[in-house]
Amino acid sequence: MGLKGFLEGGVASIVAGCSTHPIDLIKVRMQLQGESSASPPRVGPIAVGARIVQQEGVKALFSGVSATVLRQTLYSTTRMGIYDILKQKWTDPSTKIMPLPKKISAGLIAGAIGAAVGNPADLAMVRMQADGRLPAAQRRNYTSVVDAIARMSRQEGIGSLWRGSAMTVNRAMLVTASQLASYDQFKETILEKGVMGDGLGTHVTASFAAGFVAAVVSNPVDVIKTRVMNMKVDAGKAAPYAGALDCAIKTVRAEGPMALYKGFVPTISRQGPFTVVLFVTLEQVRKLFKDL
């Protein structure tokens, strides 16, 4: 019973992650705008995407996709599976409903564990997505997620694979709690009010609503996480950021509070489709595996 939740969540997450990867890459590039004086002028998601294609080619939109697959395999499979186990355990047998506070608690727990497991792949993904914006001489040029993790371990130490893990865990807790709990709550409300039946329309509507909530809640943490993970630490020199709080303070001081919502348009543009693909796929996979 518990294994099915991991399998169903993993398949749905990998499909959703790969299908929205280009949008996620654009979001990362936007979040890094303004980080240094050498950065190009701040532009919107369409311009960022066009520049990536012009300067790096169409295939650059899928830079780091191998890391996305590994990240979804580790992070999302874990969080979806644990959430499913807690959901089954905490759902009231008589009403078949889990109260919202318990949904949120389940999301927080599942997100924290999933993020801790998937941080190395998350770190590799951010670096691979951001690499193309650097001058050729400064690029890391990882060939795959395996190469990225191996080189980080060798050059920066095993501990470097969990750089930014505090922010990753915080973000994952917020995203999982807001995304999964919101989806279940919106879906239950739609069905309870009789607005629609338990079909594609309900799944898409609840997914979009959950994606919006997750984007609003997680974007500031995501900006800081991206910058901490992407920072280059040279031997013998102090790191650009001492940690997440230092990064947040420096970002706000240098660029203003709204810098924490950089990349929000691609974030919501990704969270919407990602959440829809995630839950629609999940519902279909559940139907496929219902007799297992």
From TrEMBL:
Entry similarity comment: Belongs to the mitochondrial carrier (TC 2.A.29) family.
UniProt name for this protein: Mitochondrial uncoupling protein 5
Start-end of each Solcar repeat: 4-89, 98-189, 198-288
Compartments (UniProt record): Mitochondrion inner membrane
One function term, GO molecular function aspect: dicarboxylic acid transmembrane transporter activity
Pfam family, one: Mito_carr
GO CC annotations on file: mitochondrial inner membrane
InterPro entries noted in UniProt: MCP (IPR002067), MCP_dom_sf (IPR023395), MCP_transmembrane (IPR018108), Mito_Metabolite_Transporter (IPR050391)
Lineage: Eukaryota, Viridiplantae, Streptophyta, Embryophyta, Tracheophyta
Entry annotated with the keyword Repeat: yes
UniProt main location, coarse: mitochondrion
